[in-house]
Amino acid sequence: MAVSPMSRRRWQVFYDDRCNLCLRIVHWLRRLDRRHCLAFLPFPCVSEGCSFDVVQVVSPEGQVFWGLDGIVALMYLCPPLRPFAWLTSLSPLRRLGWRLYRFIAANRYRLFGRR
């Protein structure tokens, strides 16, 4: 599936559309995206080389954010979540955040189910 020209002007958020947790987060982010700057794209539209265990966020300028960095970028884009983005950027919490992210990503189907 091709990426639409409209989504190229927005932040592209690639997610696992088989993951219940991922689908809930996308639903929640859609509600928080008051500026309509996010385009949500399920993984099947991504080239085969991408990992399903890592959230991928691409800025309108083409900068790619992976994993926790992608989550933090999304939090900065949603004003109610900005304080959490700032906290997550602090060094000790960042290390803990990456550990937690990796654990949840690797176990998301077992913990939250799969479609």
Mind explaining what this structure looks like?
- The protein is of the alpha+beta class.
- The chain has a single domain (5-109), classed as Glutaredoxin (3-Layer(aba) Sandwich).
- 50% of the residues lie in helices and 14% in strands.
- Strands 2-1-3-4 form a four-stranded mixed sheet.
- It is globular, with a radius of gyration of 14 Å.
- 17% of the residues are buried.
How many individual helices? Answer: 5
The CATH topology is Glutaredoxin
**What strand line-up does the widest sheet have?**
2-1-3-4
What is the radius of gyration?
14 Å
Helical residue percent?
40-55%
Order of helices and strands: HEHEEEHHH
Instruction: Choose one word for the global shape.
Output: globular
Structural class based on helices, strands and sheet pairing: alpha+beta
Extended strand count: 4
Strand content: 5-15%
CATH architecture label: 3-Layer(aba) Sandwich
**Mean pLDDT value:** 87
Domain unit count: 1
Layout of strands and helices, then pairs:
Layout lengths: L4 H4 L2 E5 L4 H13 L5 E5 L13 E3 L5 E3 H11 L4 H8 L1 H22 L3
Parallel strand pairs: 1-2
Antiparallel strand pairs: 1-3, 3-4
Structural features:
Glutaredoxin, 5 helices, 50% helix, alpha+beta, four-stranded mixed sheet, 115 residues
